[in-house]
Amino acid sequence: MLTAETLSAEERTAIADLIAAAPVPRAACTDVLRYVQQQRGYVDDHCLAKVADMLGMSTAELDEVATFYNLIFRRAIGEKVLFLCNSVTCWMLGQPELQAHLAQRLGVGPGETTSDGKITLLPIVCLGHCDHAPAMLLGGELHGDLNCEKLDALLCLEQA
Q1: Domain that holds residue 133
Q2: In 3-state terms, the chain is what percent helix, strand and coil (to 5)?
Q3: What is the pLDDT of residue 160?
Q4: How many CA atoms lie within 13 A of 95 on its CB side?
Q5: Which residue in 6, 18, 43, 124 could disulfide with 83, CB within 3.0 to 4.6 Å?
Q6: Which residues, including other chains, have CB under 8 Å from residue 158's CB and lie 6 or more apart?
Q7: Domain check: are 101 and 34 in the same one?
Q8: Which among 1, 42, 40, 35 has a CA at the least distance from the CA of 17?
Q9: How many other CB atoms are found less than 10 A from the CB of residue 49?
């Protein structure tokens, strides 16, 4: 089993290959972060430090990149992530009501994961689905024209 204290030989090789394919090592940082997340589910502090060293970056520099992108996770997340759009359009068309409904239904607030580890609820600035606002991305699938009933139906499918 992989632990936070190690990068496997396979991971180190894959990271080295990503770095070698880039014009300069630091240019591979987002690809490397995505790779680590794909392998481990998120990028913990120890892996971030090891990867930063491989990229010739400081840990702080790589952390700045990792925390800039909202699809790079720096802590454990649920099996699926529910991104609820909080753009102006979604907000005007019912996002606050949906947010409250999700909090009650899932028992979590923004940035939290359900007690069963199934769903992490995260806000996102815009999903680019304004013509079907309010919108969310659940497990990589875009859903629009949301209301509480549609949200409940989608959550029932996820939890089945």
Answers
A1: 80-159
A2: 50, 10, 40
A3: 54
A4: 24
A5: 124
A6: 80, 118, 119, 138, 139
A7: no
A8: 35
A9: 14
Same domain, 49 and 92: no
Kindly report, residue by residue over 5-40, the tens digit of the pLDDT. Answer: 679 999 999 999 999 999 999 999 999 999 999 999
Q: Are strands 136-138 and 141-143 parallel, antiparallel or unpaired?
A: antiparallel
Whether 142 and 91 share a structural domain? yes
- Sheet strand arrangement including 80-85: 119-124, 80-85, 136-138, 141-143
The distance of Cα 58 from the centroid of its chain, to the nearest Å, equals 23
Beta-bridge mates of residue 142: 137
User: Residue 47 CB: number of other CB atoms within 10 A?
Assistant: 23
Within this chain, do residues 34 and 92 fall inside the same structural domain, yes or no?
Answer: no
Domain harbouring 103, CATH code? 3.40.30.10
The pTM for the full model equals 0.79
- Average pLDDT (144-152) is 96
* Six-digit token string for 150: 């549609």
Residues 117 and 86 in one domain: yes
Q: Which residue do the tokens 């999903």 mark? A: 127
Q: Are residues 146 and 99 in the same domain?
A: yes
Range list of H helices, 6-56:
9-20, 29-40, 45-55
